[in-house]
Amino acid sequence: MALLKANKDLISAGLKEFNVLLNQQVFNDPLISEEDMVIVVEDWMNFYVNYYRQQVTGDPQERDKALQELRQELNTLINPFLAKYRDFLKSRELPSHPPPSS
C-alpha cells in the first residue's frame, strides 16, 4: 500500500524540521552521557511522532503505516547525530596519564 500524498508531505516536513532541530544542537558544558543523549533524542522523536499522529490522514492502517515510516526516517537522522555526539565526547576525554614515579 502506497502512502497518501498528504502523508508523504507530512513526513517530509517532519524530517526537515527534525533535521533542523538536530543541527541546532550545540555540544557544550555541562556534558551529558551518551546514554542520556540517546534518551533525549528518543524523547524528541516520540514528540514528533505524537505531533504528526494528529495530522496524518487515511484509514487506521494508512495512518499507522505513515507513522511507522516517519519513525524509521527519524531514526535514520538520529544515528549520525548520535555518532557525532559520541565523537565529540571522545574528543573531550582527558588522556590518561600514568602516576608519577617515585
Automatic annotation (TrEMBL):
Where on the tree of life does the source sit, at the highest rank? Eukaryota
User: What Gene Ontology terms for biological process does this UniProt record contain?
Assistant: erythrocyte differentiation; protein folding; protein stabilization
Q: Which InterPro entries match?
A: A_Hb_stabilising_prot, AHSP_sf
A GO molecular function held by the record: hemoglobin binding
**A Pfam family reported for this protein in Swiss-Prot or TrEMBL:** AHSP
- Which keywords, in A-to-Z order, does the entry hold? Chaperone, Cytoplasm
Please give an example of a GO cellular component term from this record.
cytoplasm
The record's subcellular location field reads:
Cytoplasm
- Give the family per the record: Belongs to the AHSP family.
State the oligomer form and interacting partners: Monomer. Forms a heterodimer with free alpha-hemoglobin. Does not bind beta-hemoglobin nor alpha(2)beta(2) hemoglobin A.
Protein name as annotated: Alpha-hemoglobin-stabilizing protein
Which organism is the protein's source? Cebus imitator
